[in-house]
Amino acid sequence: MNKLFLIAGGLSAVAALLHLGCIYFGASWYRFFGAGEQMAQWAEQGLIKPTLITLFIFSVLSVWAMYAFSAAGLILRLPLLRLGLVLITAVYLVRGIAGFFFYANPMGRSPEFWLWSSGICLTIGVIHSVALALSWQKLAVPN
Fold this sequence. Notes:
The chain is an all-alpha fold.
């Protein structure tokens, strides 16, 4: 079992569950996790928009966790596994790096949100990168 992909999948799964927590616990969680005052206010008003946005993010993170778990050998092999992992890794790395550029102009979020979330994304992206590099041949399409 590939432990790095297991860790990467676990981190994506935790992030997905935290997003569900925002939906369940509402405005206080949106504020705590830095989603922005607008999202928190929408949640307080009972609008569906923050729920839909957050469910979308939850869904994406869940699929990413499944791809990492597949590469770890925890679940069955998913289609286009290597391509999927390359794209997931790229998104995590780009989001991690790009977020640091929003520190000075946080666009409705706190500078701390951009620092923390970017650091987390960059860490998960690096774990994916190392796991991919070490497992590239093993992840080749089976004959």
